[in-house]
Every structure is written in C-alpha cells, then in structure tokens.
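Task card 7
Instruction: Convert sequence to structure tokens.
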Amino acid sequence: MVQRLDYLSETPSQTAGPYVHIGLAPGAAGFSIFDRELGHDIAGQHAAGERIRVEGTIHDAAGAPLRDALIEVWQANAAGIHAHPDDPRAPEVEDGFRGWGRVLTDFDTGLFGFDTVKPGAVPGPGGRMQAPHLSLWIVARGINLGLHTRMYFAEEAEANAADPVLGLIEQPVRRQTLIAARAAGTPPVHRFDIRLQGAGETVFFDI
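Output:
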C-alpha cells in the first residue's frame, strides 16, 4: 500500500537559532570537538599574491551590531582560479589553498575579521571578466534564509566599473554598499561593514 503524501503541508521555516555555532563552529561555542575546525585557513601558507585582512561589523535595522552571526567566505586565488572541480584550472591552485573559510562575529564587540590573499579577476557568464571579489554568506538568529552578498575592492575602480554583476545594480549608491575601503597597514586592512536593513542596506543576491 502506497501512502499519499500530497496532503501534507509545508514545514514552517525557522531561523538559524542560537545553536548555529554549536553545529558549524563548536569551538566558538565552547565545545572542543575537533583538533582543527574547518574554515580557519582560507589561503594556506603557500598561496601567491598580496596578503590582506578583512574586518567589519554586521548591523541590524536599528544599527546595532550582530554579535552571533556566522559568515562563510568563497574566493579565487590571486590568479583568479577557484579551488573547485568546476574550474578547469583548479589543478593549478597552490597546495593548501581552499578558497573557503568560516568566521564569526565577536560575541562582545560584533567585529569579524579574517586573513587571506587578495583574489584575482575571474571569468563570468559569457566570458566577461568579473572584478576581484569575495563571495559572502551570512546566517544568524532572525535570518530565515542565509544572505548572499559580495565584497569588492575600492582600489579596483576600473575593474569594478566593468564588472557584470555590479553593473546589474542601477543605483550607484547601492553599488557602494559592496565596496570595501582599504587602509594602510601590514597586511592592508579592507573594511567591509554589512547592513541588513535600513539606511545603507547592503545589496544581497537571490541565488
């Protein structure tokens, strides 16, 4: 006998809840489960290119910092190659380069930060080159679905102007929400603040 399931209603959606760190980053939640958690080293020791640091804060609609958010980062290496089997040049990626990381906002200050190498330009749809960028995915309490956005580099003005994804955003002021400011230092720090709602809301992508 086959039981019919078409009468069942859709399961209600839920936010990530307060336990997202236990499942995805247990060390930050005080659980010593793994000797080394995934996502701590994005570029590895042997990656070529300029070493950089990215720092920022995620703000809610009231402007308050989110202190329990988790961010996943994807990027190409300095030559514009992704460490992914769909990239035909993936075998050329340096040993230890993952191009993926997982970081948390500080429970006290809300600040997040990570070290990596500056990515190179990558081919986009139709062969058009995309400006150097980081892809970010954000999850936290109060967010039903993870939010996808990008971080571009202010010093890449020419490449940014020709980027096919940035070009989809009609309002220049909205494009600016995806541009990180560069500050001098060793390594240089790129500041990227994310606003979930309200004035200056960051552009998010439906993918």
